[in-house]
Structure formats: structure tokens, C-alpha cells
Amino acid sequence: MDFKEELEKRVAYAEKVIYSYLPKEEGYQKKVIEAMNYSVKAGGKRLRPILMWETYQLFGGTVRETIEPFMAAIEMIHTYSLVHDDLPAMDNDEYRRGKKTTHVVYGEAMGILAGDGLLNFAFETACRSFSHNTDGDTTVEALQVLTRKPGIYGMLGGQVIDVESVNQEITMEKLEIIHKLKTSALIEASMMIGAILAGASEEEIKEIEFAARQIGLAFQIQDDILDVTSTMEVLGKPIHSDEKNNKTTYVTLIGLSKAKEQVADYTKQAMDIIKKSGRKNEFLERLIIELISRKK
Amino acid sequence: MDFKEELEKRVAYAEKVIYSYLPKEEGYQKKVIEAMNYSVKAGGKRLRPILMWETYQLFGGTVRETIEPFMAAIEMIHTYSLVHDDLPAMDNDEYRRGKKTTHVVYGEAMGILAGDGLLNFAFETACRSFSHNTDGDTTVEALQVLTRKPGIYGMLGGQVIDVESVNQEITMEKLEIIHKLKTSALIEASMMIGAILAGASEEEIKEIEFAARQIGLAFQIQDDILDVTSTMEVLGKPIHSDEKNNKTTYVTLIGLSKAKEQVADYTKQAMDIIKKSGRKNEFLERLIIELISRKK
Predict the structure, then answer these.
(1) Nearest to B109 among A89, A117, A124 (CB)
(2) Percentage of residues in chain A having pLDDT higher than 90
(3) Is 80 exceeded by the pLDDT of residue B150?
(4) With CB atoms 3.0 to 4.6 Å apart as the test, which of A55, A214, B47, B128 could cross-link to A266 if both were Cys?
(5) Could you give the C-alpha distances from B146 to B125, B194, B270, in angstroms and in order?
(6) b/e string for B254-264 if b means 16 or more Cβ within 10 A?
(7) For B235-244, what is each residue's pLDDT tens digit?
(8) Do B127 and A147 touch (CB under 8 A)?
(9) Nearest C-alpha of chain B: how many angstroms from A148?
């Protein structure tokens, strides 16, 4: 398998799906829709919709019209969180992925409204799955996950704890909770929804939730490791930024070698679930390895 | 009927329902939950959940557990819109209903996150209706309305057009669109969801949507009229504020006497639908009259 080529195909497919569900830039609301679409089209790995789709495949899902509204929805939710994170009152970031952030281009009021619009439109979009799914119960279950995981007991909760922990001492327990919520919650939602809509059993959905959580955590620890071990040339951003910002990370808490061990442990736990007998998705396996052992 | 007493009962019931669905102020996310609950508990007429409940009654609905999550959800959505409207980058209001606004009490970042949290939690809460409704199809339909009406083609769209129209000439057509979206959309959602969950027919739901729209418009025009005809003593806020802010209103566009005619017309259209043969809800009829002919 030429992984890079296969990945590009997936990204192209995910973007085709996402773009097809974006609102048309017309009417009196044109400007906020432009701001919403600008944010979504500004790039990104499209990791969450791809993980959703591949998990759907892993469990034998076949009805594109059922899963696609959710693929678009999860990317809208991810994007809304970035747009609001970048606001002056939050991280005050002017650039993301080399492009001006939404509030810089469209103004702060429109940045707030575009984020609100994306979050709301995500649920509106996901509801379109009901027209195509003959088994409405799985859509209900998928929708429950889609509403729960980004919220105060998921991603948003992690964001809040993170904002509040600035300049405070952070324990290992708290650091894990922040990452479980901030990073893992949307990955859990993505993979769980893929499994649910493909008709996976309750036990299988729980396993996938756990695998997704470990993937998110391993991804995050790898981030901390690269900040210490990589070079600015490879990473494309300044290294040692955590140290400079006096930020608590896995590396500062447990040291580099134990952090590496944990990445390996979490990855193995996730892979054991993905590769469990009866399941086979070579691309998904490879994607997870690439994500976690990445050099940048 | 002692209307005031009956209204107080409804407000107490609506608040009991709303509060019962609010998240508990505990755990690492405690602060954002406090900010969310502060905003919801800061008062208000609870008009939307009451209209939802009364429309549910109008069509013979009986299962409280089905409608109540939606009553809480619509109030959370209404509250999120106020919290974000009050932000410094938007209207920059420090007080609402005599209390400090959320971002003044909890900081701007928390104001943004609390609004996001409420919008997200509204959909999470509404999904709880699925566990109690034996007819899942009506919950799906109600959820579709709940996701559509507050969004870019509803309330949020109106907000955007309004923000963009500052210091611009506004036509009658545009003014109606702003009010239909900003004011009527959530009233439409409230009454439609009441009708849908009570098992009203497609035609009845359409009628209720129209009635709700007219109620929202009449309410808004009455607001414009009072700004010209009332006194500060009665209204409890400065009069002639529209004129001072050079704001286009129904009164500036069509004059006081035509504006009054329109309130009467819209009210009659709404009442004809509410009182249509086979339907009876004396309190709802009275509530609408009171809303529209109010003196403050």
C-alpha cells in the first residue's frame, strides 16, 4: 500500500463530503456563511471524518448517505472550536496553518457568530442522516454521541480546565483529564459514530471508545515529546515552546523515556482493539501508526 | 381566570423544568457550569418554554418527560444567544435585567465558553427526550426544528443581518426578515415543537408555524410602538431610544397608525389559528393577547 497516496484519496473524499454539506454563500446571511466556510476550507488533516469513515468501514458500513452528514458535522464542530479558541479573549491567534484566522479576516463579532453558526449547523447537518438511515435507532445513538462528546463533559470541558490551569500546578491526573477531554473526546466521537452507524454491538462500541481515547492520548504525548526531541526544521514550528511557556506536559511530569513508553503502551492497546479477530482495515491500522509515530 | 396567578404558575413550572436539566456545579468543569447556570437563572419571562408547553396542551399532549427536555433546551438556546449578544465584541452590555452579564462576572473567555456550552448542552438535553417518547419519529422531527430555527437560516441569521445593517438604510422587506429571524424563529420553534410532540398533523404544524411567526412580528412591532408612545415611568427604560439611535423601525417606516393596524392584523391571524375549531386553550389565547397589547 502506498500510504501517502491512499491518505490523499481519503482527504480528498472527506473534503468533498464536508464541502457538499456547507451552506451556500448567498442571501442576507451571506457574510456569516462566508466566514463559516472560510474557516472550514482553511485546511487541516480532516483526521476526524477520516477516522469516522474508516471505523465505519471496519465494521462493514456501506450506506454513504448515512455516515456522510456526520462526517461533515464532526469537522464543523472541530472547526468551531478552533475559531473560538483563536478569538482575542481566548488564545488571540492571528494565524492558523499559515492563514489569517477567521476573526482577523471577518472581525471579532463575525468570528463569534461564525463559530456559533458552525456548532449549530453541525447538529442541523447530522439530522439529515435520518432521511437516509432505515435504522433510525442508530442515528439517534450517533446523535447522542455527537451532542455529548464536544460539550461540557467532553471537548469544551477540557478547554475550560485548560484555560483555568494556566500558571497553576497540574497533576498527572489533571493533565490526563485535560487531554482526554480536549483531544480524545472528538476522536472518540468520530470512531464511535462510525461503529454505531455500521451496526456494531454495544460491547464493540465501548472497545472503540477506549481505543479512540488511547489514540488521542498517545497523539498528545507524542506532541509533547516532539517539542523536546525534534528540531525546528523538521517540526516547522519553534521547539522547546512548552518549557518556555512553563507548561506542564507528560515529559516534564514523567520524563522522556517514560513518556515514550506510554505512547507505545497506548498505541498497542488501541491497535489490539482495531486488529481484533474478525476486523480488518489495513489503512486504519497504518493511519494510527503514522499519527502516533510521526516526526512532526 | 386570574391571568396573573395562572402565569406565575406557568413560570414556576417552566423554571422547575429548566433547572432540573441544568448541569450540576461540580467537577473540574465547575466554573463554566456555574457561568452557564448563572445566565439561565438570571431571570426572564420563560416565554418560549411556556409557549411550547401551552401549544403541547392545545394539541392534547400528555407525556411530560417527552416535552420537558425540549422546554429546557429552548431556554438554553435563548440564553446562549443573550450571553453572546452581550459580549464586548457584540453589544458590549454590562447589565441585563438588572444583573451583571455573564462575561462581566466570569470574564470574557468564560462568557464565550458558557454560551458555547449552553448551545451544545441544549441539543444534548433535547436528545434525552428519545428515552421517553414511544413515537421516536416525532422526537426526530422536533429535533430537526430545534436545530434549524436557531441557526443561520433562523435566529443567528437575523442577528447577523442586524449586526451588518447598523448605519445602513433598511427597507421594509429587510426589517421584516430581521424580525422574522431574530424574534419569530425561536417562537416558531417553541410552538412547532409543542405541536409536533403532541402529534399534530403536518398541516396543523404549518399553521402553528405561521401563527408563531405573526406573534413574534406583532410583539416586535409593539416594542417599536411603545418606544414612541409610552413614558419612561411605565416602560422602565428610556423612550425614544430608536429615534436617538437613528434606528429604522416599523414606526419610522410606516408610521404609528399603520404600525398599530399591523399589530392588530397579525394578532388576529395568529388568534384565528389558535382558536380554530376543535382547539381550546384559554390561557394561551390570553397570554398572546397580553404579550401583544402590553404597555411595557
Answers:
(1) A89
(2) 80
(3) yes
(4) A214
(5) 11, 11, 21
(6) eeeeebbebbe
(7) 666 777 777 7
(8) yes
(9) 6
For A127, other C-beta atoms within 10 Å of its C-beta total 23
Task: Choose among A112, A121, A161: nearest Cβ to B152.
Answer: A121
Q: Residue A169: what pLDDT?
A: 85
Mutate to test the interface with B, among A31, A79, A118, A123 (most CBs of B within 10 A): A123
Judge whether B127 is closer than 8 Å to chain A, CB to CB: yes
A164: contact with B, CB 8 A cutoff: yes
Helices A64-85, A108-126: crossing angle, 10 deg rounding: 160
Are the beta carbons of A156 and B32 separated by less than 8 Å?
yes
Q: Which residue has the cell 411603545?
A: B226
Chain-centre distance of CA B244, in angstroms? Answer: 26
- pLDDT score recorded for residue A295: 76
Q: Return d(Cα A146, Cα A151) in angstroms, integer.
A: 9
Asked if B185 and B51 count as a contact pair (C-beta separation under 8 A), the reply is no
Span A281-290, average pLDDT: 95
Q: Given this model, what pLDDT does residue B67 score?
A: 97
Cβ neighbour number for residue A121 with a 10 Å cutoff? 26
pLDDT of B129 strictly over 80: yes
Question: Which phi and psi (to 5°) does residue A28 adopt?
Answer: -65, -25
Portion 135-154 of B in contact with A at CB < 8 A: 136-137, 140, 143-144, 147-148, 150-153
**How many angstroms separate the most distant Cα atoms in chain A?**
57
The C-alpha atoms of residue A82 and residue A85 are separated, in whole angstroms, by 5
Nearest to A76 by CA among B22, B277, B147: B147
B138: cell is 416525532
In single-letter form, the type of residue at position A289 comes to I
What CATH number matches the domain at B3-292, 3.40.50.790, 2.30.29.170, 3.30.2130.10, 1.10.600.10?
1.10.600.10
CA atoms in the 13 A half-sphere facing the CB of B217: 26
Residues 74-113 of A with CB under 8 A from B: 80, 84, 87-90, 107-113
| Ramachandran sector of residue B87 (left: φ over 0; alpha: ψ -120 to 50; beta: rest) | beta
- Closest chain B residue to A83, measured at CA: B112
In chain B, residues with a C-beta closer than 8 Å to the C-beta of A156 are 32, 113, 116-117, 120
pLDDT digits (tens, 9 = 90+) for A104-157: 999 999 999 999 999 999 999 999 999 887 777 899 999 999 999 999 999 999
A71-93: per-residue pLDDT in tens?
999 999 999 999 999 999 999 99
Q: What is the ipTM of this complex?
A: 0.95
Please choose, from the candidates A123, A101, A126, A127, the residue with its C-alpha nearest in 3D space to the C-alpha of residue A112: A101
Contact (CB<8Å) A109/B89:
yes
